Amino acid sequence: MDSLDVIGVGIGPFNLSLAALIEPTPLRALFLEKREAFCWHPGMALPNSRLQVSPFKDCVTLVSPTSPYSFLNYLAHHGRLYSFINKRNGSTSRREFTDYYRWVARQLGTVRFNEEVLDVAPFRDAYRVSTSTTSYLARAVVIAVGVEPKIPPCAKPYIGDSVYHAADYLDRGSPRPDEHVLIVGGGQSGAEIAEHMLNRADSPRITWVTSRSNLFAMDDTSFVNEAYMPRYSRRFHALPLQHRRAIIDNEKLTSDGISAELCNRLYDVLYEREVEGALSESFHLLPSVVVKHITPLNKRWQVDLTGLTKQQHHRIVVDRIVLATGFRPRTPLFLQSLLSNAHMEDDLPVLGPDYAVSFTQNMPGPVDLQNQSRLQHGLQSANLSLVAYRNSLIINSLLGQPFYVDQSGQLLGGHESPAEQNAVFDAMTMAEKMSAII
Prior knowledge:
By secondary structure, the protein is of the alpha/beta class. The protein is built from 14 helices and 21 strands.
């Protein structure tokens, strides 16, 4: 059996980008996915869902602007280039970006759907990747198995048709007008679902709870977005663990807030309901509140809520619970086995600058992890901002030489100067720096 250079496990946005960027290189690659076709959180593809980053943070553009797999080329191919520019806001919907991803996937001969990977294990001088139909050999593997819903423990026993995660929202049918719906979670997903229900002429009664003290907008200003630049990512990776933790906590709203546009739309809708005198009967927002217990009650749900500030307890009865409680990286059994001899840091595998796992013993080749390095490489590892950059590092490392360069002319994956390596990383926000100067 001939050995490939690299096999990608999972075909989501991250490995799709890798496949597109590998195509012009001499690397022999194959990408495997258990689903029948490309999909990207289909249960959350609401009409009002918008991409929270620039569409130029696509599969390829930020490291290969002339690639045929760019979002701009997608627009041109579909005859929408001028129309997109005329929209003036420069953003796109999740539905359009999903269609872009599918368009890229259809053009790549190295992606293979409907083939589930069951095991990845060292085999002589390579990795044997066993699927539902056959086995392959590769000198390197890139794991991008995606994320899974994060379910609060009190809700796990009741997951089903009327208690479910936001990822399944469109698959569970619309709430009836006479239902009382509880939305749990104050991020973008919860806000999109709340708006989707509120915009219905026959919207249900809604109670929306969040552990946050308010509905906070995503911090999306130009200075803050410097945290989603390659140099920032490299310097973040070199920091001690406790510093990285502090920065992630400090910068959480750069990726985990509600878009300002959606915040304002929601406020306008609720204001008009207040003008009509219908707000108090149809909608309640409870900040600084967590769900403590869920109990079945005559085909409905009794929910015990606790305030985080005053420790007040409240009980409501609802018909449906939508958990907009986020996601966590998936760790299938084969990955747990593969990482059994990895160096660990705070129960997480240690990853190098090129996203390769550091092992305690010799391995046949690199094992790269996508979307499993939030604590090691920063918040950008879990969103689309540096996906092309990350994959260019992986490709350059597999080739053993630089193939891609960044747009400032510095070789991607190149070493920073000793002065940069020894510099003290300033974790303060721009506002803190300004106030300190003043």
